[in-house]
Each structure stands twice: as structure tokens, then as C-alpha cells.
Amino acid sequence: MNAGLDPHPNVEPLNRTRRQWSREDAEAIYELPFNDLIFRAQTIHRANFDPNRVQLSRLLSIKTGGCPEDCGYCSQSAHHESGLKASKLMEVKRVLTEARKARAAGATRYCMGAAWRSPKDRDMDAVVAMIEGVKDLGMETCMTLGMLDLGQAQRLKQAGLDYYNHNIDTSERYYNEIITTRTFADRLDTLANVRDSGIKVCCGGIVGMGEEKADRIDMLVTLANLPEHPDSVPINMLIPIEGTPLGAAEPIEPIEFVRTIALARITMPKSHVRLSAGRTAMSDEMQALCFFAGANSIFVGDTLLTAENPEEDKDSALFRRLGIQPMERDAQ
């Protein structure tokens, strides 16, 4: 009998969402023989999603650089010498022009990011206008603006914001090795404010920052044990940027990255698992393995905030080879 076809004792039934994971249970799954792990992840993926559909999002930096936070991976931090020039908040008209281009290219969700610690009151009117304008185009809206209090989250909800991205980045244990200007608890507080306002949560992290395997597992356990699983879980592979503290970080081994994707799918079966930053460093075969392990969302477009992203023609060619179609909005 092939034991790989038997359910692992620590994996929930395919139609059940579990919200209390221990490190031990998650680690036991992560350490399964690779074929068994991928089989289990794909089986759970098929029970919850069309395995041949991938959700397409477009990300635009609406305010670049000059951020007071000291995130060790980020070129937009004012603490680092990355050579990035800071810019003011983009005009609403330009944001909507870019959103129309994204819609024409097949994106169903438009994500807007600002390099702030938290949004200032003077900027909220423009942010609200961006949300309303993108909604009028028939697209889903997502923003990442830094920390939010409950009042700010409620105002974004009233404007029609669908999703708010606020990553925890890594495990609580490793967090202070990467960021010192805001705490892990600060991030969880913002997630609670977003959730309490009725906005869907987009939350994931970054791997390849020098963390241990246990940190990747703990990060996913934290997400899987939130009161509600994030609707979207972006898994970023670090893009080392010269001038940042992590500019010379060693890349994560590809199989370990795929294992991380698979564990995200298994522990959060109904979440969209986004294959996010770092795809320019991935082979087509590695991306295909990630899709097989349960990733079902990507960012399209040539840039992600300040980093490179695969050209759209290259993504389209890969999708054709794999038989993957863009996910329709009404299928999300």
C-alpha cells in the first residue's frame, strides 16, 4: 500500500478549516516526503479551488520611498542607502489611468501601496478617491498603507475597500532581526482593526531573509491561527537590494520555498496563496511546482512597487504551457 495516499494524521479533512495549529503539527507536515507533501497540498487545493485558474492582481506604488520604518529588506526605507528617490503621493487621475490599463490587461484586483508608517489625515481624502475610482471600474480594491487604527480602517471600508495588505513578514522570534521601528504586536493590532472593520485581510510574509526553517513554519502557524484566515496569503521570496541590510542575503533553496507554499495551502485551505515577489529569480519549473503546491494568485506587470516582476508576455507564455487560465472575479 502506498502510504503517500493516506491522509496524514495532522491534516484536517479537505472540507474543514482548522484554526488551531501547533508548531509540531505544522512541522510534521512540512517534513513529509516531498511527493507526499505536494500530493496532499494539491488534493486540498482541488477541494477548494479550480486548480487551473490563477487570480491576477496589479500592484502600483502610489507613494514611493522616504519611509520612516527600518525594514531590512526594503529599498523604500529612509534608513538605507538604496539610491531610491522619494516621491509624493500620486495624483488620483494618474492612479485611475494605471488602473484602466491593468483592467485591460486582465487584472481583476488593483492593489495600491504607499511607503508610510501609517496614513496621515491630510492624505485620506485622496486615498478614498482612489478606492472609489477603482471600484467604479469594476475592479476589486486592495491597499497597503502601513499601520491603521480602527477609525482609519472604518473609513477605508466606507469608501469600498475590499482588501488590506499588512504582512507579518516573518516569525515573531525572528522579527526583531529584520525590523525595529514597529513591533510584531503592532502588526497584529492593525490586522485586528482591518478585520473588525469588515475589510478582508491580505497577510503573508517574506522568506529567504536568513531565517530558519522553524521561522517559516511559525510564520504560517501565526497566520493559520488568526481568528479568520487571511483571504490572501502572499509568500514573497526576498529580492536582495543593494544598500539594504539584506542586500547580500543568501537565496532560499527552491524546494524549501515550494514546501512553504504547500504548507500555506494545507494550513489555510480556502485562502488565495499568492506567489508574490521574487518570481524573476524563479525558473518556469519552480513556478509550476508552486502552482502545483497550491499557489493560485500572482501579481502581473513589469514592477512590484520598486522591484522587477516578470514581463506579462512571459507570464502569458507560461500560463499557456501549463494550461492555466486567469481567475474570473466572480470565481473568487
Automatic annotation (TrEMBL):
Question: Which of this chain's residues are annotated to bind [4Fe-4S] cluster?
Answer: C67, C71, C74
Quote the pathway field.
Cofactor biosynthesis; biotin biosynthesis; biotin from 7,8-diaminononanoate: step 2/2
For this protein, the record's InterPro entries field holds: Aldolase_TIM, BATS_dom, Biotin_synth/BioAB, Biotin_synthase, Elp3/MiaA/NifB-like_rSAM, rSAM, rSAM_sf
Q: Which GO terms describe its molecular function?
A: 2 iron, 2 sulfur cluster binding; 4 iron, 4 sulfur cluster binding; biotin synthase activity; iron ion binding
User: Domain Radical SAM core spans what residues?
Assistant: 52-279
**Known EC number(s)?**
2.8.1.6
Q: What family is reported? A: Belongs to the radical SAM superfamily. Biotin synthase family.
Q: What does this protein do?
A: Catalyzes the conversion of dethiobiotin (DTB) to biotin by the insertion of a sulfur atom into dethiobiotin via a radical-based mechanism.
Q: What is this protein called?
A: Biotin synthase
Q: Which organism is it from?
A: Phyllobacterium phragmitis
Q: What is the lineage of its organism?
A: Bacteria, Pseudomonadati, Pseudomonadota, Alphaproteobacteria, Hyphomicrobiales
